[in-house]
């Protein structure tokens, strides 16, 4: 591993001295580092994963052999947040095929169904076993397999903690179940069963990753520990914004994985470091810029994927010590979930009242507590950053991502982009728990297709809209600037946004 960064100043030197004994305590899993009564007491086994995950190798070898013997060569992973981001990075890095369903958009789910479902192995990853998105995916695929005359137990693999309702029900159904270490939190689970099961089924030799992670782990308490040096830099060199870029990197998707790790871990008590994923080093507007291949960044961190996974977990834990927050809880993630469930209950009871737009034309409808006729009017609001939250089909509406760079270049402020509902399991925490200085743009659309969720009176279209509205209510409670733009004609609306922004 190689680190390229600025020279140390006196302030950072003092932080380095403070962190060195903390790193030694972290290595022996001292849960009092972040204070008393934190979730650290049952969330520190990620430190051992480079070694302990080797115990999974016989199970993974057997699972892969079974999959090959059945000629199940189309691997689909249904999971949110930490259950899917790491496997995506792993398989992309090693050039393996993995279809990830981390959405409730019905059009995207339908497009993700393997053409030959008899050749598919469906991995369901849920730490709690109660994630509404993942359980809905499971219900859908169970029904789909049965309708195609297939036995779900010959196509479904479950990854969850021991003793969850999902663990128990899956074993009763005869599914193949791999239990993850229950003392590892979701966003620290890259080297656990959540990251390794789908990767192994896709054909990745995971032992290489574990070797690299274990080798680096031995350096992380040393005098020249890269984890200590980078944590000190993230603490002293920026109060909020960290820009991350995969520009010229051989580890595609690493920035998205780090974004979730840092945002959800640090964004509490109106503290935190806000990760902004950018395409090019020149796109950085404020704060630090970090890359993973040589380029014009403030900091370059070069290393293998196994090294990067364990390094950034250590960095995040040490940074949370410095800003005095518990890295292992996510107190504000549940808010959007609770409001989503309330909206779904009203849909079940047929008492749901559709919001009334404050502005509407043939292409868009705008929902806001204030009067805005277009996106550019909203961008005049005072804020430190803007968050775009797109509850869309990223396969066919990916052009919406261009708004991030356009808005940032016009307002000269950091702009984040997240696909909904995926971001609710990552940056959704820092939006509500971090510094309350953002402006928020929700973008929704009406799916072209309807997709039922077996066993429920609401469908996937209802679910994704309820998730958007539920998160919007959580943001409104904090009196944060929020606008929802509903696309009636996605292509024309996005073209209109681009035109408006270019003349803004």
From TrEMBL:
Keywords: Gluconeogenesis, Glycolysis, Isomerase. GO terms for molecular function: carbohydrate derivative binding; glucose-6-phosphate isomerase activity; monosaccharide binding. It comes from the Bacteria. Its EC number is 5.3.1.9. The keyword Isomerase applies. It catalyses: alpha-D-glucose 6-phosphate = beta-D-fructose 6-phosphate. One of its GO terms (biological process) is gluconeogenesis. Pathway: Carbohydrate degradation; glycolysis; D-glyceraldehyde 3-phosphate and glycerone phosphate from D-glucose: step 2/4. One of its GO terms (cellular component) is cytosol. InterPro entries: G6P_Isomerase, SIS_dom_sf. It holds the Pfam family PGI. It is an enzyme of class 5 (isomerase). The keyword Iron does not apply. Belongs to the GPI family. This is Glucose-6-phosphate isomerase.
């Amino acid at each position: 591993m190689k680190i390229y960064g600025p020279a140390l100043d006196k302030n950072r030197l003092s932080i380095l001295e403070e962190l060195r004994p903390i790193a030694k305590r972290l290595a022996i899993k001292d849960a009092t580092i972040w204070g008393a009564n934190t979730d650290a007491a049952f969330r520190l086994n990620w430190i051992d994963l480079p070694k302990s995950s080797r115990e999974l190798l016989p199970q993974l070898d057997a699972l892969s052999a079974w999959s090959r013997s059945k000629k199940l060569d189309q691997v689909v992973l249904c999971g949110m947040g930490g259950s899917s981001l790491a496997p995506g990075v792993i398989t992309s890095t090693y050039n393996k095929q993995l279809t990830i369903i981390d959405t409730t958009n019905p059009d995207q789910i339908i497009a993700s169904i393997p053409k030959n479902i008899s050749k598919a192995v469906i991995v369901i990853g849920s730490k709690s076993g109660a994630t509404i998105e993942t359980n809905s995916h499971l219900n859908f695929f169970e029904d789909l397999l049965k309708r195609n005359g297939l036995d779900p137990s010959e196509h479904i693999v479950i990854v969850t903690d021991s003793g969850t309702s999902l663990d128990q029900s899956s074993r009763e159904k005869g599914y193949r179940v791999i239990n993850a270490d229950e003392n590892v939190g979701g966003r620290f689970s890259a080297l656990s069963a959540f990251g390794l099961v789908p990767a192994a089924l896709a054909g990745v030799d995971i032992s290489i990753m574990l070797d690299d992670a274990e080798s680096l782990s031995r350096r992380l308490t040393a005098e020249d520990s890269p984890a200590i040096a980078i944590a000190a830099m993230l603490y002293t060199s920026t109060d909020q914004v960290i820009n991350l870029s995969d520009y010229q990197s051989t580890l595609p998707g690493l920035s998205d994985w780090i974004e979730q790790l840092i945002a959800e871990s640090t964004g509490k008590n109106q503290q935190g470091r806000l990760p902004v994923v950018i395409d090019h080093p020149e796109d950085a507007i404020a704060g630090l810029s970090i890359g993973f291949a040589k380029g014009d960044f403030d900091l370059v961190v070069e290393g293998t994927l196994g090294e990067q996974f364990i390094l950034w977990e250590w960095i995040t834990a040490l940074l949370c010590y410095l800003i005095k927050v518990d890295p292992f809880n996510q107190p504000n993630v549940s808010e959007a979930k609770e409001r989503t469930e309330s909206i779904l209950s009203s849909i079940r009871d047929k008492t749901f009242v559709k919001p009334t737009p404050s502005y509407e034309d043939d292409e868009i409808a705008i929902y806001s507590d204030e009067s805005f006729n277009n996106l550019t009017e909203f961008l005049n609001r005072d804020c430190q950053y803007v968050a775009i939250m797109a509850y869309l089909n990223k396969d066919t509406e990916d052009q919406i991502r261009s708004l991030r760079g356009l808005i940032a270049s016009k307002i000269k402020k950091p702009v984040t982009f997240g696909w909904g509902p995926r971001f609710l399991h990552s940056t959704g925490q820092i939006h509500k728990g971090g510094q309350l200085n953002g402006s928020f743009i929700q973008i929704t659309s009406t799916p072209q297709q309807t997709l039922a969720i077996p066993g429920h009176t609401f469908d996937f279209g209802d679910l994704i809209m309820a998730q958007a509205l539920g998160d919007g209510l959580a943001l409104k409670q904090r009196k944060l600037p929020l606008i929802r733009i509903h696309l009636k004609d996605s292509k024309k609306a996005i073209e209109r946004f681009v035109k408006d922004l270019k003349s803004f």
